[in-house]
């Protein structure tokens, strides 16, 4: 595995190997303390972040390596230095690059020119680190990959896309429930063998083993007010939770807009595994970096 940009390009055994390493690493952290000694991860951000930035940086530190926070607006990129030159030069100093960018095309441009592994830390199209980590969190919580059903409700966005790809990779049944205007991208839907698309939230949750939502308006999205109006019936609240099976767990990648796509009562309920998801970002990404640097 050279890069981690798009789960559609990752083989099932590679995906499951990272999940397996994550579990070992999470429970035997001491055995991994020095594994990234002298290794530096460059963390390039065009967009804001809390979890992605901190989990990668703290994760590198914990394994004896180092993460450099590189905000594009404070770099020569803001004055027009090309992605090509930036990627080539970073590759001369650092062992891997993680980038969070507005456009997916730019991510591909970085990968074309970098000579070290490139990790997609979110684009307008995909959020593969989130989905990888969420599939670890699901399995950790007793959800059976390959047979239990993941139900995503809300905007058919980058997080939905990567979850759909992870569901395909693990042959896990998935329902995506959105308004017609906010369906996932056609190309992602057409490539998916495991996704069922519905528009009625109560129908969607009836056989859910996990319920997942994300913000209705993503970073860089247009038309926020109209979108919020359309998505109102897709809120995960206690009424919708009551329509799901009793054992259902609730997930959110965070940041949440409490009271919008999910209510306080649901976020703070016993059904929520949202903070476990957030914690697992660090363990999963440590495992990912180890695999990309052939240290696993
Ligand atoms: N879930 C996630 O990627 O969070 P941040 O935007 O805070 O990094
Ligand atoms: N869909 C959200 C995810 C944030 C982690 C966004 O792109 O803003």
Please characterize this protein's 3D structure.
With about 300 residues, the chain is α/β, with parallel strands linked by helices. The protein has two domains: about 5-125 and about 280-290, Aspartate/ornithine carbamoyltransferase (Rossmann fold, 3-Layer(aba) Sandwich), CATH 3.40.50; about 140-270, Aspartate/ornithine carbamoyltransferase (Rossmann fold, 3-Layer(aba) Sandwich). The chain has twelve helices and nine strands. Helix 5 (about 130-140) packs across helix 6. The model has no long low-confidence stretch (mean pLDDT about 95). Norvaline binds next to helix 6.
Give structural attributes.
binds phosphoric acid mono(formamide)ester, five-stranded parallel beta sheet, Rossmann fold, four-stranded parallel beta sheet, binds norvaline, 41% helix, 14% strand, 9 strands, alpha/beta, 296 residues, globular
CATH architecture of the largest domain: 3-Layer(aba) Sandwich
Class per helix and strand makeup: alpha/beta
Q: Kindly report the spatial arrangement of strands forming the biggest sheet.
A: 7-6-5-8-9
Largest sheet: 5 strands, parallel
Described by the principal axes of the CA atoms, the overall outline is: globular
- Fraction of residues in H or I helices: 40-55%
Number of DSSP-assigned strands: 9
Question: How many structural domains can be distinguished in the coordinates?
Answer: 2
Provide mean pLDDT, rounded. Answer: 97
Ligands in the model, by name, code or SMILES, are:
phosphoric acid mono(formamide)ester, norvaline
Oligomer: single chain
Count of helical segments? 12
The CATH superfamily name of the largest domain is: Aspartate/ornithine carbamoyltransferase
Query: Strand-residue fraction?
Result: 5-15%
Task: Write the CATH fold name of the largest domain.
Answer: Rossmann fold
SSE pattern, N- to C-terminal: HEHEHEHEHEHEHEHEHHEHH
Radius of gyration: 19 Å
Reading off the top of the CATH hierarchy, the class of the largest domain is best stated as Alpha Beta
């Amino acid at each position: 595995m050279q890069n981690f940009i798009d789960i559609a390009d990752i083989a099932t055994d590679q995906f499951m190997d990272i999940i397996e390493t994550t579990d070992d690493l999470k429970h035997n952290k001491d055995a991994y303390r020095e594994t990234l000694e002298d290794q530096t991860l460059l963390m390039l951000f065009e967009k804001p972040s809390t979890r992605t930035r901190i989990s990668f940086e703290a994760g590198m530190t914990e394994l004896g390596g180092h993460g450099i926070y590189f905000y594009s607006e404070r770099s020569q990129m803001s004055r027009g230095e090309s992605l090509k030159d930036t990627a080539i030069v970073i590759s001369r100093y650092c062992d891997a690059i993680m980038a969070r960018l507005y456009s997916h095309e730019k991510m591909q441009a970085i990968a074309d020119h970098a000579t070290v592994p490139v990790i997609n830390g979110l684009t307008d199209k995909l959020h593969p680190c989130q989905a990888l980590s969420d599939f670890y969190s699901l399995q950790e919580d007793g959800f059976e990959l390959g047979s239990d059903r993941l139900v995503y409700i809300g905007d058919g966005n980058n997080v939905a896309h990567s979850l759909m790809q992870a569901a395909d990779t693990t042959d896990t049944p998935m329902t995506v429930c959105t308004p017609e205007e906010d369906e996932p991208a056609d190309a992602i839907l057409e490539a998916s063998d495991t996704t069922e698309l519905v528009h009625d939230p109560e129908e969607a949750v009836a056989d859910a083993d996990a319920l997942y939502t994300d913000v209705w308006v993503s970073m860089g999205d247009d038309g926020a007010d109209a979108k919020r109006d359309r998505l109102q019936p897709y809120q995960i609240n206690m009424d919708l939770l009551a329509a799901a099976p009793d054992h259902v767990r609730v997930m959110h990648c965070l940041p949440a807009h409490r009271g919008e796509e999910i209510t306080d009562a649901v976020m703070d309920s016993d059904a929520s595994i949202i903070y476990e998801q957030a914690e697992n970002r660090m363990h999963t990404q440590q495992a990912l970096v180890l695999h990309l640097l052939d240290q696993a």
